[in-house]
Amino acid sequence: MEQLLFVLIIFIASILQTSTGFGFSILATPFLLLLFEPAEAIQINLILSLFISISLMGKISKDIDAGILKRLIIGSIVGLPIGIIVFLFINIQWLKLGIGILVLALTGMMMLQFRINQTKGRDLGVGGMSGALTTGIGMPGPPLLLYFSGTDTEKAKLRGTTLAFYLFIYVISLLIQVIFAGTTKTVWVSSGIALPIAVLGMISGQLLFKWINQRVFKVFTYVILLFTGIYLLIDSF
């Protein structure tokens, strides 16, 4: 049963990551925490997310906003060490509770048509929050998704810029996790088993991306965020 759940998690999360640019860590991490120790779940997520980002770079490079990407990376440099400190010293249940509340609150703001102007300072701040969440719990997506949705960023630019950012942040976060939290054989064996499943999900996601219009894309966004936030709240108790 656990093996089947693992396969389904990786396959569905890979579809979402490829078709939307943000879905893998948001969907995979909470469920991987059911099957693995926190450090193992986060590191498996980082390895597979990195693989997907590398695989897609050639296809989405034309959609990258280089200016935003640069500011996100600069901001993340501040957030990365904060995240690993939180992971090492704060109870994981409290961490999930806080993130669940944050995700639900910000999703509610999005559904109420909350809007925010994009600025260079806010790009840096979102990069910092994303960096902290990546090393802290392996989920860089929520701050980026909420920010870009609030600024009505077109889906191709959102997908391209976030995937390029992930390529950087996943490498650094994985190194930080391995150095400070250690790693296990389970992480690398499980990641190796999941790679072919992720490839199938990526192929399916590429086909799906061609059929998703902007309105459907927003519905996907709300459903995934609400599901993740509610799940994190329930699991934290």
TrEMBL record:
Statement: the UniProt record of this protein carries the keyword ATP-binding: no
Keyword Ribosomal protein: no
A GO cellular component annotation in the UniProt record: plasma membrane
Key words of the record: Cell membrane, Membrane, Transmembrane, Transmembrane helix, Transport
Its membrane topology: Multi-pass membrane protein
Record-annotated membrane-spanning stretches: 42-60, 72-91, 97-114, 163-181, 187-209, 216-234
Localization per Swiss-Prot or TrEMBL: Cell membrane
PANTHER family: MEMBRANE TRANSPORTER PROTEIN, TRANSMEMBRANE PROTEIN YFCA
Protein name per UniProt: Probable membrane transporter protein
